[in-house]
Amino acid sequence: MTRRPADTFPHRWFRLSTSGLFLVLALVGGCGPDTLGDPEGDAPGALEAGTADMVLLDGRVVTVDPELGEVAAMAVRGDRILAVGSTEEISDLVGPETEVIQLEGRLVIPGFIEGHGHFLGHGNARMTLDLSGTRSWDELVELVAEALSEAEPGSWITGRGWHQERWVATGHELFDGIPTHHTLSEVTPENPVILTHASGHGSIANARAMAEAGIDAGTEDPPGGTIIRDHEGEPTGFLRQAAQGPVRAALARYEEGMTAEERRARLLRQIELAGEDALAHGVTSYHDAGATFAEIDLFRELAEAGELPVRLYSAIRGESMESMRARLPDYRLVGHADQFLTVRAIKQVMDGALGTHGAWFLEPYADNPGTAGLPQTDPEDLRAVARLALEHGFQVNTHAIGDRGNRETLDAYEEVLRVNGGVTPDHRWRVEHAQHLHPDDIPRFGELGVIASMQGIHGTSDGPWVEPRLGADRTRTGAYVWRDLIDSGATICNGTDVPVEPVSPIASFHASVSRMTPQGWRFHPEQAMTRMEALESYTINCAYAGFVEDELGSLTPGKLADIVVLDRDILSIPEEGIPEARVDLTILGGEIRYRR
């Protein structure tokens, strides 16, 4: 649970209880019943006094508001929740123009808030080769060969989603768990290829791509990256973390040949696809883990035109200190364009991912003793960014996966906050992922008021290879310790890290409460959340993590009408049935945006 006061509501609203019915009335001089649910009293197309635009009847409405609990029905007027109560009471708000949704016992919950996703990357992943289903190197090569039939000679082929730990052995010699590029290069002699790991922290490049990037046996490893090599010192094609940079730069040079109109069209398509997918999975708000100023300019343009498909809480990423120092004041947006765009966070990256041996640990990897990971940011640089963020009223959201990455991040936060008045100000700084913690650092999240922005689905997806990477003791005491964090007073905001995992909150919810791996065994089930904790982690906790708990995250009268209807009750059905649940309706700001 968050530390928010239970009775915190938008300043214009208060709740009126009459029997079991909770209505919201406007505290605006001169307003009477004819402005019920319309705080300004002049909403276009206002209905007759006392009626709602939409009602949902005869269901299980779980408000995620501790004072309201569960009810059977609710009403919406405009983009706000008007009332919750019994079906009989809410039926009194039905007028001739009211849309009536018969729930027939279905579950109603607040709109899911994706606590950590990559919005444009999400859309882009749907425009490239999807490699998440590959179960061998040979299958990956076959998919690229199929894509080649539709590619022009010299054009780039891109894909994402493979993970070597999901592959079965096919007789290839492996280097850091991955075959060399040669069979891939044989089928793509004229086309550069870059295929990104599911985590985003490594890529496979073919010979043509490495040639265009200038990578050969004589190329030195860049700071924060590794070019994996074979026995003769030749690049295998696997590029870990910062070593991807030259190939990505070569791809960017190729894309410079696109016109400005073509680039804009591509970005708009990415936004459209990401929004469609999010809404189909019940996601109404989306914490975007990093955008440039130019990308935020486009988000702002679309938000002001009413064309953003979901509410975006976007963090600034990829900008220099000089750029941020000059431009941060112009980009701090809070609740902009009817709460569709907020920019008040800066994204930093402390280390890499566990799957690519890039997460930064206090001790070496059990299965690769030659490395303890690859730091991506000097902790002193993080302190500088944190001081800049504090000066301009920005949150700091830092990617940290390994126990040393997390410790360095917490140390930097604590030092900056203590120097600047202590840890009590409502900073709500975050650690993104917080996957592997030293036991000594677990209580520091609650003590410092740092939010653990974690992804339930990562725990079960990664579960099969965590212990081989870290050993039994580090796995047991520090891997995905949701229960320990909650019990120590930390706030967990859930998500999927899409496109690393599909954007499905239901899948991540199931992982959070079951710890069930795809192989059918439970990964340290003692660290599971309760079902209500998991729902809170996807609603009110993420609202708190984005400073909007007064507007979103619960079905409280007066809040924005972001609502999801599920076809079954994931809070009570047998656990094994949760993954089969489907989103029937996604309502955003009182409008149905997705209907199954």
Distance between the termini: 31 Å
Mean pLDDT over all positions: 91
CATH homologous superfamily caption of the domain at 1-110 and 554-596: Urease, subunit C, domain 1
Tally the beta strands.
27
**CATH class membership of the domain at 1-110 and 554-596:** Mainly Beta
What is CATH's topology name of the domain at 1-110 and 554-596? Urease, subunit C, domain 1
Low-confidence stretches: 1-19, 25-48
CATH architecture of the domain at 1-110 and 554-596: Roll
| Helical amount | 25-40%
Q: Biggest sheet, strands in spatial order?
A: 10-17-18-20-21-22-23-24
Largest sheet: 8 strands, parallel
Percentage of residues in DSSP E strands: 15-25%
Whole-angstrom Rg: 25 Å
Please give the count of helices. Answer: 19
Structure classification:
alpha/beta
Broad shape: globular
Write a structural description:
It is a single chain. This protein is α/β, with parallel strands linked by helices. Among the domains are: 1-110 and 554-596, Roll (Urease, subunit C, domain 1), CATH 2.30.40.10; 120-255, Diaminopimelate Epimerase, Chain A, domain 1, CATH 3.10.310. The chain is 31% helix and 22% strand. The chain is globular, with a radius of gyration of 25 Å.
Q: Care to give the gist of this entry?
A:
The chain has 596 residues and is α/β, with parallel strands linked by helices.
Helix-strand blueprint:
Layout: E1 13-18, E2 21-26, E3 54-57, E4 60-62, E5 70-71, E6 73-77, E7 80-85, H1 87-91, E8 99-102, E9 107-110, E10 112-117, H2 119-125, E11 129-130, H3 137-148, E12 157-162, H4 182-187, E13 193-197, E14 202-205, H5 207-213, E15 225-229, E16 235-241, H6 245-255, H7 260-280, E17 283-291, H8 293-304, E18 311-316, H9 321-331, E19 333-335, H10 336-339, E20 341-349, H11 379-392, E21 395-400, H12 403-419, E22 430-433, H13 442-448, E23 451-453, H14 456-470, H15 472-478, H16 482-487, E24 492-493, H17 505-514, H18 531-537, H19 540-545, E25 563-566, E26 583-588, E27 591-595
Parallel strand pairs: 3-8, 4-9, 10-17, 11-12, 12-13, 17-18, 18-20, 20-21, 21-22, 22-23, 23-24
Antiparallel strand pairs: 1-2, 2-7, 3-6, 4-5, 6-7, 9-25, 13-14, 14-16, 15-16, 25-26, 26-27
Helix pairs in contact: 2-7, 5-6, 11-12, 14-15, 14-17
